[in-house]
Write a structure and sequence with these properties.
It contains one helix and 20 strands. The protein is globular, with a radius of gyration of 16 Å. It starts with a helix and ends in a 7-residue tail after the last strand.
């Protein structure tokens, strides 16, 4: 099962007991109540509980990771990069420590996803998509306000707006394209042919 399938499936059950889908299409319950989770593999995941504490899944147990800031959102990439969003500040995991990524005012990041240690995307409270590569640059959607964004292994960016429309960013054309027939509240992308999403009735597509 791919990373993004597990991300979409586990985020669909965001509040309460964390469940993971096995390769034989059955579900098992993992021993932790969480608010949000991000997954690389069966043996590697990061999660935030309802007290905004940060945890790392080792494959057999959850380890609480000491941090000096409340964790609002966590993202992990296939390249082992880990970012944590806290009070409009993005922290990047460096060894056993954390490095703050600069956010220039008035940008406020509400949700983000990481591709590599120094590259990621985010949704601002202003409803714009932002891409980070040494600095945050806006990629505003052609319609509506962004509510969720994801970046794939190859750097492809997909986003959902407040009307549940889905968009894909074309790097060559420097433009967004709407995905006809898709209506989602959040999504996870590995590449343009491997995209998973959650509908407003909490079903996975």
């Amino acid at each position: 099962m791919t990373n993004d399938i597990k991300r979409a499936e586990q985020r669909a059950a965001m509040i309460g007991v964390l469940s993971a889908k096995n390769d034989d299409n059955t579900w098992r319950v993992l021993p932790q109540k969480i608010a949000q989770v991000t997954v690389k593999s069966t043996d590697s995941a990061w999660a935030i509980d309802h007290s905004k504490k940060l945890f790392n899944w080792t494959g057999t147990k959850w380890l609480q990771i000491p941090i000096s800031f409340p964790a609002d959102y966590v993202s992990m990439s296939a390249k082992d990069a880990v970012w944590v969003l806290s009070n409009n500040t993005v922290w990047m995991r460096k060894g056993s420590g954390w490095t703050k990524l600069p956010i220039t005012e008035p940008i406020e990041i509400a949700q983000m996803e990481v591709r590599s240690e120094g590259e990621g995307v985010g949704v601002g409270v202003d409803g714009k998509v932002y891409r980070y590569a040494n600095e945050w640059k806006p990629l505003p959607l052609p319609e509506g306000k962004a509510v969720h964004v994801s970046i794939g292994d190859s750097g492809n960016i997909w986003a959902v707006n407040d009307a549940k429309q889905v968009f894909s960013y074309n790097e060559k054309l420097k433009a967004w394209a709407i995905i006809d027939g898709a209506h989602l509240i959040q999504l996870a992308v590995r590449n343009d042919n491997d995209v998973w999403g959650v509908t407003d009735n909490k079903k996975i597509k």
